[in-house]
Amino acid sequence: MKWINENLYISPINTYIDPSKPVENAIITHGHADHAKPGHKNVLATKETINIMKIRYGENCAQNFQELKLNKTLKIDDVKITFYPAGHILGSVQVLAEYKGERINFTGDYKTKKDKTCENFEPVKCHTLVTEATFGLPVFQHPNEDNEIKKLLRSLELFPQRPHLVGVYALGKAQRIIGLLRQQRYDKEIFIHGALEKLCNYYVEEKIFLGNFLKTNLKDKKEYQGEIILAPPSAIKNVWSRKFEDPIICQASGWMSIKQRAKQSLVELPLIISDHADWNELTQYIKLTGAENVYVTHGREEAIVHWCKMNQINGLALSLSGREDEEDL
Fold it and tell me: How large a percentage of the chain has pLDDT more than 90?
């Protein structure tokens, strides 16, 4: 990557992709806190990502914002920038940069499975792929999310007197879990922690169907018997969760496939539902792009790099700092 360095800096246009510190020019792939930082001078992103940044950080979290629509190309000097859906969360994109005949695609975080709470993933051919590898080990093969959500509904039937507290990340996962419940025709009111309210409301503004949801008030413990309550994992781990009577602790994450991790988090009902690509998705997409070079930004870099070399693809781990493993994003 002669014109893009290991910090995802595009030198011909003095622009960084998802920089961890404030810079003059930033392209933001999506609104999660480890990719979207406040304080940049100029930000290029989708409308949804811009709005999410303003919700999380305030209206003036960057000096200037510029929206770029999906599948539309913006030419900056001699570099062409095009956004393609990443399928990760609302507003998430892959960033295709073209310069002097070379195509480099930055995936940001992504999943290739369909999701009604965001634009579905769209594959992109490129010479070089810059990819995440959060779940970049063969052991990570995510099950069907509908079957996972049915586990929650079966538990409600088995334990109708117990509230079900579900740990979800405030942006993307919370709304996806609500959407999956609605797809299973669960039409009861869903309760949410206050930290989820603004982002759930924004999804509704963007015409994402979530049905009826209500912020918890915790005045009457019996009010939540047999109900589903969504909250950030950090809230479920602290005193907030103790206000519920005999709750079943659940968590929705790709990490729940690791039994020891679920046990350490005191999760009684793990739900393996991820907004990141698993091993099969990662390797299949690398093949599909036709990329000669693959650079891994974060996650389980070594396994993906080894797989690339076994398949006659140039692989390199960038090991970017500041990328998180789905913790309260």
Answer: 88
> How far apart are alpha carbons 93 and 76 in whole angstroms?
18
Give the DSSP letter string of 144-188: -HHHHHHHHHHHHHH-TTS-EEEE--TTTHHHHHHHHHHHTT--S
| Every domain range in the chain assigned CATH 3.60.15.10 | 9-139+276-317
CA R_g for the chain: 20
**Antiparallel, parallel or unpaired: β 25-27 and 102-106:** unpaired
Cα separation of 116 and 110, whole Å? 14
Predicted model pTM: 0.94
Q: In the structure encoding, which two tokens stand for residue 109, read together? A: 């975080």
Are the beta carbons of 63 and 26 closer than 8 angstroms? no
Domain range 9-139+276-317, CATH architecture: 4-Layer Sandwich (3.60)
Q: Which CATH class is domain 145-271?
A: alpha beta
